[in-house]
Structure formats: structure tokens, C-alpha cells
């Protein structure tokens, strides 16, 4: 079940969130941020945030926000996280499909991911299967703890045809 993320849902997911940011392999978040800072970034600043719940546990979540303001506010941006124990079970796919539907309902016309780390091959393949294209490369944009400086990609998908 996917539902709007509550404070309790975020607290339930916090150990997974914290593990992701401490690993420093996929998100450019401060690895030492506390739960309040993380909650602000993931749940309060974005337009919407959602949780994937199974048997009372939050296995994954995402946020959705406008990618820019004014004349570019028709393009949204999302971020997704899935707990390590739940990876490989289709949760990221389900969350991404859900986010696209919500984006269309909120009148967004396209979705853009601003920094998909080039070593995150599983995510890149999934986003491409779901219709996203790499539209740009930011050279050496990410300091990976094991690989050193690596590229990140900008990925984009048109959700509705512009009129």
C-alpha cells in the first residue's frame, strides 16, 4: 500500500534512510544529518511525500516537488529510497509509477531526476525501462566513497504532451 507519508512513517523508515545517506553511494545528503533535518528535506519541503507500507513497515518512500519555479514549474523532481531488505522486490518500480500518476494529477508535464549517480546501475536501468532518458552528464559530480569522483546523470521523462 502506498499512502501519504506521516511523521510516524518517516520515523519507522529512519534507520533505512540513515543507512542510505551514511553509505554515501547514491544520495548527495549530509551523512551526519539528524532525523529532524532529514524529515524537513524529505517530507516538509517537498510538495508531497509517500510511503510504501507492508505489514506495518515502511519499505520505501519518495518525495515529489517542482524541479524549478515560475516558467519551469511544470517539471517535477522526485527522490526514492527503498530499505536494503526490500530491494529487488519491485518497490522502486511501484513507487516510480505511482509518482508519475501523482505528478500528472498535480498538473506536472514532465519529471526530471537531477543527479542519478552513474554507479547506480540498477536504478538507471529501471528508470530507462520506465521511459526516462539520460539527457545530460555532470562530469565528476559525485565523490563516491569507494570509486572516487564519478559522473552523475540528469534523467528526464515527458509525462504529458505539451499543448
UniProtKB/TrEMBL annotation:
Pfam families: Acetyltransf_1. Transmembrane segments: none annotated. CDD domains: NAT_SF. Residues 1-160 form the N-acetyltransferase domain. InterPro entries: Acyl_CoA_acyltransferase, GNAT_dom, Mito_N-acetyltransferase. This is N-acetyltransferase.
